[in-house]
Amino acid sequence: MAETEDFLIRELHPEDDDIFKEPMRKRRRSDRDQRFRAFPSVEQSALKEYEKLESRTRRVLSNTYQKLIQSVFLDDNIPNSIKYLINRLLALIEKPSLDPIYIGLFGSTGAGKSSLINAIIRQAMFLPVSGESICTSCIVQVSSGCCEQYEAKIHLLSDQEWKEELKNLTTLLHRTEGPGGEEEDAWDRGDAAEEAVWKLQMFYGNGAEGKSYEELLRAKPRGKIPTSRVISLKAEEAGELSVKLDPYIRTQRRDWDGGSAETHIWPLIKLVEVTLPKSELIPEGVVLVDIPGTGDFNSKRDEMWKKTIDKCSVIWVISDIERISGGRAHEDLLNESMKACQRGFCRDLALVVTKSDKLHLPEYLRERKVGNEAIQSQREAVLERNEMIKLQRNKILKDKLKRKLPADSRVLEASELVYTVSAQEYWQQAVLTEEETEIPKLREYIRRRLLDKKKRTVTKYVTEAFGLLLLTDSFSCTDHMQNEYLHMSGLRRFVEEKIQLLEKAIDQCFAHIARPLQEGIWNARSSYRRILGACLVRSRGNQGFHQTLKAVCLKNGIYASRTLSRIDLNEAITQPIYEQIDPIFGRIFRSGKPTDGSALIPHIDAFKLSLQEKMTEIGIRNGWKYDSYKNTFLIQEISAILGGLEEHILRKKRKIYESLTTSVQNDLKPCYEEAAQITGKKACERMKDVLRRGVDRQVAEGMFERAQERMQHQFQQLKNGITEKVKGSIATMLTLASSPGDGLYKELAALFLRRCHVDPATVTSSS
Asked: Which InterPro entries match (predicted)?
C-alpha cells in the first residue's frame, strides 16, 4: 500500500525526543555495527536500515501507548474497544525484534557435530572433540550476543527431576529372588544397566550401585549443587571458557574415577547455553544447537531432546562420510528429522556429510568408474568423490522427502540438500582450500536465512504498526458516522456468514485424513504382532537385553541410550498408521496455494482476502477513498489477527501428530508397569510374554480405534480454537472501528486529543 511504503521510508524528527541525545546515538550505532560484523557491507547496510526503521516504529508506538494510558488512567469503566487498542499497542511494543533461528545439528555418536560448530565459529577445540566414541554429553546451544565476555549457563535437573531418575536407575539395578526363592537369571549387564551404574558412581561414588533408592536419597553427592540449579561461567577468552566448560559437557569415561567436583555433577546436566561476544561469523539471532545421540533415559531430558528438535526451523543431519551408506543410525536420524518437519517448526532440512577429506587414494582409483580423465592428486580425487556423493545422496534424500512431505514443501525447492564438509581441513588446508571445505558455504546459508527473516519480520511489524497508528487520524472525523455504523452492521453479518463457511472448509480439510487414518488402523491391526516381535528380539538373545527391556518398561515403552539406537515400542506399533497419514498430514499443514482443498492455511488466507475485499468495497461506497485511514487499519488488522493464527496452528500441530503414540502409550501403561516389576528366573521371557499379552488385549479392546478418535478430537479442538480466536478478535476490532457517534470515537477524541494534546497530523508526519 502507498501509505505503508511512505511510512517505511519516512524519517522521524530526532529533536522531538530526548532519547536522541548524541552520546546515546553514537553508542547505539557502535553496538549495531558490531552486531552485523558477520555480514558483507551491502547486507550490513540493509540490516541497519531494518533496525532503524523498527526502532523508530517502536518509539512512536511507545509514545502513543503512554499517552493513551495517561488519558484513561482515572476512568473506572474503560470501553472494551479502548482496551483492545491498548492491548494491541502493548503487544506490538513487547513483540521481540526477531525470534531466534534455531539450527539443529542432529547426528549420532562421533559424527563430528562439535567439530563442525567449532569450525563455523572459528574457535578450534572450543567444544570438546575426541576420536573416542561419545564426546558431547548434553544439548549445547551456541549463539552470539551483546555481551563483552564469553559466557555459559549450565542448567541442571531440579531436585524432583533427579529423584525421578534416581528411582528409575535403582529400580533398573534392583536384583531380588524370584518366586519360591529362585535366583534371577545370570546377570550380564546390558547398555541400560551399565549407564545406570556409571551415573550413580559418578554422582555418589563407588558402591552407589548397590544401594537402595532410600539410602541414596540420604547420601551426600560428591559435587556441590547450587540451589538455583544453574551454573554461570564467564571468561575473557574463548580458550579460557572452553577449559571451564569441558568437565560439564564432555562425556566422562566409565573406567575413570578421578576428576573435579564439576565432573561429579555431570549426571544432573540437561542443557548448556553458550553465548559468544559479538561475532564476525555467527550473527546475533542465530542459535546453533548440538543435539547428541537419540534422546535420554531421563524423562525431562528426553522431552527436552524432542522439543529442541521440534523448535529448530533448520535441521542439519550430520553423518560421517564413512557411515553415510547403509547405517541404521543414519536412517533413524533422517526419519526423526522428517518427523520434525511434520510435527514441528522445521522448514529446511539438509544432510551435512562430515570428514569429507577422508579418502584412501589407491583404493579409490582401483574402484573408480567415473569419467576418463586421470586423477592427478588426492585433492582431485576428494573433490570428485564428494561431488558424486552430493548427487547420489541429494536424489535419495529428495525421494524420501517426497514420500513424506507435500510436493510444494519448501525443503523440496532447495537447490542444495547435501553438503560435504571437512572441519579438519578447514584448519589444516593440507588437501582442500577453505572454500572447498564448504564451511564458508554453511556460514553463507546462515546469513541468508537471518537476512531474509529480518526483512520479512520488520516489514510485517511496521505494516501492523502503521494500520494501528492511522486509526488515530480518524478520531476527529465523525461525519457520516451513523452511515458507517449501518455499513459496519452489514459487515458483521458478512463476517458471520464467512466464519460459517470457514468452519465448513476446515471440516472438509480435516476430512481428507479420515480415510488414510482408517487404512492405517487396519494395517496396524494386521502387523502389530510382527512389529512387536521384532522389537523384542536381539541378535545375542537375552544376554544383557533383560535390563534394557526393563528400562523400556520403566519409561512406558521408550528407551533412549547414548550408544544404541532409540527404542520406542509405542512409535513402532503405530508406524503403519503414520505411513498412511504422513503425506496428507503434511498437505493439511502446508502453506501455499490450495489444490485439492486439503491445506488449512490457504482456507484462512481465502477468508482473509474475502474480508479485505468487503472492507474495500464498503470503504469506497462510504467515501473512505478520500480518507483511507480507517480502511487501511481494518485491512491490516485482519492480516495481523489471521496471521497470528498460523503460529497458533504450528504450536498445536505437534500435539495432534503425536496423539496416536500418546494414546497407545497411555493404553499400554498398565502392561509396561506389570512387566517392569518382573524379577527372578527367566525374567526376560516373562516380561516379553506380559508385553505380548498386554498388547493383544488392548488391541482387542479397541486401542487403535481409540487412538483414531483422539487424533480426530485434537483436529476438532484445533478447529474450535481457530474459529473462537477469529470471532473474538474480529468482533472487537469491528467495534473499535465502528462505534456510533456517541461511542468510541467521541470518547477517544475527548480523552486522547484533549488530555494528551495529540495532533493526528503530527503523529502521521512523524511516523
From this structure: Dynamin_N, Nuclear_GTPase_SLIP-GC, P-loop_NTPase
